[in-house]
Design brief:
The chain is an alpha+beta fold. The protein has three helices and seven strands. A four-stranded antiparallel beta sheet has the order 4-3-6-7, covered by helices on one side. It has a three-stranded antiparallel beta sheet with strand order 1-2-5, with no helix packed on it.
């Protein structure tokens, strides 16, 4: 009984990790490539994997702070993918994305003088962007999917 409950909830089930190729600069690159590693203590079947590159754009300070989350790119890898208990499954991926540029970013790209002004304005208004890559693996017969995040610099 406990074994069925653990199997259904995904305890000791599939674990997902992300390994990226060379560190690509998000400002200049249009794709991110790497390998997903799927491991498990038991043989499992993964139906599909959803990869998403997300951005959290924070602006303002203290009580006037505003936070927005954006999905910059998404990729669905359809399976089935067999995961053995002996060796982790390696699934290569290439995710295309488009950056969303704020008014400060557009001003910063104009010329060298505006770049300093835009960076100072970002600092004064507390503007920050944070990027991460999410991977979610949907396993056959599970109620909870395997999930991981990798923050990018």
């Amino acid at each position: 009984m406990i074994h069925k409950l653990r199997h259904w909830l995904g305890i000791e089930g599939v674990k997902v990790s992300i390994e990226l190729d060379a560190r690509a600069d998000l400002k200049s690159a249009k794709t991110i490539s790497g390998v997903l590693l799927l491991s498990s203590k038991r043989p499992e079947n993964v139906d599909r994997i959803v990869l998403a590159l997300k951005e959290r754009y924070v602006r303002g300070r203290w009580k006037e702070k505003k936070v927005s989350d954006f999905t910059l790119g998404e990729l669905v890898l359809k399976g089935p993918f067999a995961v053995n208990s002996e060796t982790p499954a390696q699934i290569p991926f290439k995710l295309s994305f488009t950056l969303i540029k704020s008014d400060f970013d557009l001003l910063e790209e104009k010329n060298l003088v505006y770049k300093g002004v835009a960076q100072t304005a970002k600092w004064v208004q507390g503007v920050k962007s944070e990027y991460w890559l999410e991977a979610e693996a949907f396993v056959k017969g599970r109620i909870i999917s395997a999930f991981t995040k990798k923050f990018l610099k």
